[in-house]
Specification:
heterodimer; A: alpha/beta; Rossmann fold; 8 helices; 10 strands; B: alpha/beta; ten-stranded mixed β-sheet; 10 helices; binds adenosine-5'-diphosphate; binds magnesium ion
Chain lengths: 260, 417
C-alpha cells in the first residue's frame, strides 16, 4: 500500500532545562502508518503524548527525537525544517494556537500562502487575488470579515482561533493534515462548519490524522482507523466503532493491558 | 594625587582643542572652553557615561574644516525627498550650516531666523561637556518660531553630514524651536551622511500654553559617523509633546533628552526604536522632571540588536514634591538577536510626591520561539519569520504615530538596508 506517513519505533523527549539531563522522554516507541487517502484518529488520555506527537511531526524545536524514523511521502521527515515540512504538504492545526501581536492576519496568511506556493514551484498570489480567495474561504467558515484585518489570534475567542487554523489549512492546501483537538471548545454549529472545512479538502490524495476526545466530530468526518495512544505508545488499533465504545467505557480496559 | 589626575583630564581637552585649532587666546575668552577645561573628560567612571565610552573623541583627529560637495548634496536630497516629502517646506543643513540654495524655507523674522546665541548664556543652559563642546563653535542657531502669524505648521529638517574618511570633521548644529500659544506643529528631521564625521548638536525646544509638537527624528547616517545630541524641552501648561526617534545609522551615537514639565496638564510622550548591527553603539539617555501637578510622561524605548551591537537606555524620572497626580511611565524592551549583542538598561524613578502613578520596567529577550515555530509551521522560512516578528515588535511603536506619511517613511527607513 502507498503510505503518506510511516512512523517507526519513534522515541522523543521534550527539552526540559529543569531536569538533570535536560530531556524528558514523552514518546516511547510509536508505530503508526497512514496510507494515502485515509483518515486516522488518535484518542487517548490527557498527557499521553498526543500533542507531543503532532509537534514532533511538524518539527517543534523543543522536542528531540532520540531514536526511530518518520517517513513522509518517501522522504525522511525528521531531516526537514518546519517550513520545508509545510511546503511538502504537512499541516498541523494547533491545539492552542499562539497569538502574534503586531502581525496582521491577512499579511500573515498571504506570506504563508506565497511562501508555500513558491517552495512548491507555483506562482505567487497578488494581493487582490489573495484577498478574494481568503474572503471566500473565511465566509465558508462563517468567519467575520474583520478577522482578516486583526492581528493573528489576538483577542480571538477559543472558537475563532480554531476557525483561523482551519482557514490557514484551507489556504495552504496540505496533502496531510493533523488536527489536534480542533473540535474542543466548539459549539455544535462551529463544529459542523469546521468539519465541512476539513471535508472540503478531502480527495483521494488527502490524508489526515485527527486527535480528538469526542465522538461527535466523527459524525461528520468518517475515519478509517482509530488508534489509542497511552503513555507514549500506540496501544490499540480499531475500526470506526472504537470511538463509540471508548465514549461509553473509557480507557480503563485498554490501559490495564499496558506495561510501563 | 588627585591634583595630578585633574591636570591630566584637563590636558585631554587641551589636546582636542589643539586639534580643532583653537588658539590660546580663544581658550581664555570662551566661557564654554573654560567650562571644558575646568571639568574632567567623561569616562566610564562618570555615572552618566557608565555604558558609553567617548574615547574615540580623543583618538580621532577631527577638524573644523569640511569640504563642500555639491554632487553629494544633490544625490542625498534625491534619495531623501520622496514624493511624500518633496513639497514639505524644508531647511537643509550641510555639516552643521544652513544651505539657502537647497532649502525651501528662507529667512523671515516671523518664522525662521539664523541667530547668534554665542553671547547668550541662557541658550541651552545645560552644564555638560558635549553642550560646552557644541558651544565653542560659533555657527548660527537655526531658530524656528511656530506662531499663528505664519501658516507653516509642518517642516522638514535635513541634516547632511559628509567628510572624507581620511579627514574626519566635526560640526555643531544648533536648533531652537519655539511653539507659541495654541499652535500645533510637526517637525520631521532626517539625518543622513557619508564618511567619518562627528555631529554634536544641541536643541532648545519650548512649548507655550496649549502648544503641541510632533517631533520625529530619524538617523540613517553613515555607519562610520558619530552623533551626539543634547535636547532640552520645556513644556508650559496644557501642552502636548510627542517625540519619536528612529536610530539606524552611526557607529556611535548618544541622544540625551531633558524634558522639563513646568506647566500643569501637560503631556510628554517620547519613544525610540534603535535597530543596530555590526559594532554599532547607541545610547538613549533621558531625564524627565515633573515640577507641577497633573502632568503625564510616557517613554518607550525599543532596541533591536544584532551582531556585536550595543544598546544603552538610561532613563530618569524626577517627580518633585508639588507634582501630585503625576502619571509617569517608562518602558524599555530589547530584542537580542545575537549572543554577542549587548544591552544596558537603567530606568530610574525618584519620587517626592505621594499621590502619583509611576511605573517603569525593562524586558530583555530573544524572539519568541513558539511564535517563530508557528510561522515556520505555516511554510514561512526562518529569516522571513524572524523579520515578521521584528517588524511586529517595531510596529507597536510606529502604530502610535498619527501621521500616515511619517508612518510610511519610518516603515521605508526600517526596511532599507
Ligand atoms: N515543554 C514541556 N516541558 C515538560 N513537559 C512537557 C512539555 N510539554 C509537554 N510535556 C509533558 O508531556 C506529556 C505529554 O503531553 P501532551 O503531548 O501535551 O499530551 P496530550 O496532548 O496527550 O494531552 C505530559 O506529561 C506533559 O506534561
Ligand atoms: Mg494535547
Amino acid at each position: 500500500m502507498n503510505m503518506i506517513l510511516e512512523i517507526k519505533e519513534l522515541h522523543a523527549s521534550v527539552i526540559d532545562d529543569t531536569l538533570k539531563n535536560g530531556l524528558k522522554p514523552i514518546l516511547k516507541g510509536v508505530n503508526l502508518s497512514i496510507p494515502v487517502g485515509e483518515t486516522h484518529v488518535i484518542m487517548g488520555p490527557n498527557g499521553s503524548g498526543k500533542s507531543s506527537l503532532s509537534y514532533v511531526l511538524s518539527g517543534h524545536p523543543s522536542y528531540k527525537v532520540t531514536s526511530g524514523s518518520v517517513t513522509f511521502k518517501n522522504q525522511n521527515l525528521l531531516k526537514m525544517s518546519p517550513d520545508e515540512r509545510a511546503a511538502a504538504g504537512l499541516f498541523l492545526a494547533f491545539q492552542s494556537p499562539v497569538e502574534l501581536p503586531g502581525v496582521n492576519n491577512a499579511n500573515f496568511l498571504r506570506t504563508a500562502v506565497n511562501s508555500v506556493r513558491k517552495a512548491r514551484g507555483e506562482s505567487e498570489l497578488d494581493a487582490v487575488s489573495f484577498l478574494k480567495l481568503a474572503r471566500q474561504l473565511a465566509k465558508n467558515l462563517s468567519f467575520p470579515a474583520d478577522m482578516l484585518k486583526r492581528n493573528v489570534n489576538v483577542g480571538f475567542s477559543g472558537g475563532e482561533k480554531k476557525r483561523n487554523e482551519v482557514l490557514q489549512m484551507s489556504l495552504l492546501q496540505p496533502s496531510f493534515a493533523i488536527l489536534d483537538e480542533t473540535d474542543s471548545g466548539l459549539d455544535i454549529d462551529a463544529l459542523r462548519i469546521v468539519a465541512e472545512g476539513v471535508n472540503s479538502l478531502q480527495s483521494p490524495s488527502f490524508s489526515s490524522l485527527i486527535i480528538t476526545h469526542h465522538q461527535r466530530l466523527l459524525d461528520y468526518i468518517k475515519p478509517d482507523y482509530i488508534h489509542i495512544l497511552a503513555k507514549g505508545r500506540i496501544i490499540f488499533i480499531g475500526g470506526p466503532e472504537l470511538s463509540l465504545q471508548l465514549e461509553k467505557e473509557g480507557y480503563a480496559r485498554f490501559l490495564g493491558e499496558v506495561n510501563e | 594625587m588627585s591634583n595630578v589626575k585633574e591636570h591630566q583630564y584637563g590636558n585631554e581637552w587641551i589636546e582636542i582643542l589643539e586639534n580643532l585649532s583653537f588658539s590660546e587666546q580663544e581658550r581664555k575668552t570662551s566661557n564654554a572652553i573654560r567650562f571644558l577645561l575646568a571639568n574632567s573628560f567623561p569616562t566610564r567612571k562618570t555615572e552618566e557615561w557608565k555604558y558609553s565610552d567617548l574615547k574615540w573623541l580623543k583618538k580621532i583627529k577631527f577638524t573644523q574644516n569640511s569640504v563642500f560637495d555639491e554632487i553629494f548634496i544633490q544625490k542625498a536630497l534625491d534619495t531623501i525627498l520622496t514624493d511624500d516629502l518633496k513639497n514639505v517646506p524644508r531647511i537643509v543643513c550641510y555639516n552643521g550650516r544652513y544651505l539657502k540654495q537647497f532649502s525651501t524655507i528662507q529667512e523671515n523674522p516671523n518664522f525662521f531666523m539664523l541667530v547668534d546665541y554665542s553671547k547668550n548664556e541662557s541658550f541651552i543652559n545645560l552644564k555638560n561637556a558635549l553642550v560646552a563642546l557644541n558651544k565653542i563653535f560659533d555657527n548660527l542657531t537655526i531658530t524656528v518660531k511656530f506662531s499663528s502669524k505664519n501658516d507653516m505648521k509642518s517642516i522638514l529638517c535635513i541634516n547632511l553630514g559628509n567628510a572624507n574618511t581620511s579627514r574626519p570633521c566635526v560640526f555643531s548644529p544648533k536648533y531652537h524651536f519655539h511653539i507659541l500659544d495654541n499652535v500645533q506643529a510637526t517637525i520631521l528631521e532626517i539625518n543622513y551622511g557619508e564618511g567619518v564625521y562627528f555631529s554634536n548638536s544641541v536643541y532648545d525646544i519650548k512649548l507655550d500654553h496649549k502648544a503641541q509638537l510632533n517631533y520625529t527624528y530619524i538617523n540613517k547616517a553613515s555607519k562610520k559617523s558619530y552623533y551626539c545630541t543634547n535636547t532640552l524641552i520645556e513644556l508650559s501648561d496644557h501642552t502636548k509633546y510627542k517625540q519619536f526617534q528612529l536610530i539606524k545609522g552611526s557607529l556611535f551615537s548618544r541622544y540625551e533628552t531633558n524634558i522639563h514639565l513646568k506647566g500643569e496638564w501637560s503631556q510628554a510622550e517620547f519613544d525610540a526604536v534603535q535597530i543596530l548591527s555590526d559594532h554599532q553603539h547607541a545610547d538613549i539617555t533621558s531625564q524627565v522632571i515633573h515640577d507641577v501637578p497633573h502632568c503625564q510622561s510616557h517613554q518607550n524605548v525599543k532596541n533591536i540588536l544584532s551582531d556585536f551591537s550595543h544598546g544603552v537606555f538610561q532613563g530618569k524620572v524626577y517627580v518633585n514634591r508639588l507634582a501630585q497626580k503625576t502619571n509617569a511611565q517608562q518602558q524599555n524592551q530589547a530584542l537580542l538577536l545575537s549572543d554577542h549583542a549587548e544591552i544596558n538598561t537603567k530606568p530610574e524613578l525618584e519620587i517626592y510626591a505621594d499621590d502619583v502613578k509611576c511605573s517603569h520596567g525593562a524586558a530583555i529577550g530573544a524572539l519568541d520561539q513558539e511564535q517563530l515555530f508557528f510561522l515556520m509551521s505555516r511554510g514561512i522560512p526562518y529569516e522571513l519569520a524572524q523579520k515578521m516578528l521584528i517588524n511586529a515588535f517595531i510596529n507597536e511603536s510606529i502604530e502610535k504615530i498619527d501621521d500616515s506619511i511619517i508612518q510610511n517613511l519610518l516603515h521605508q527607513s526600517i526596511m532599507a538596508k
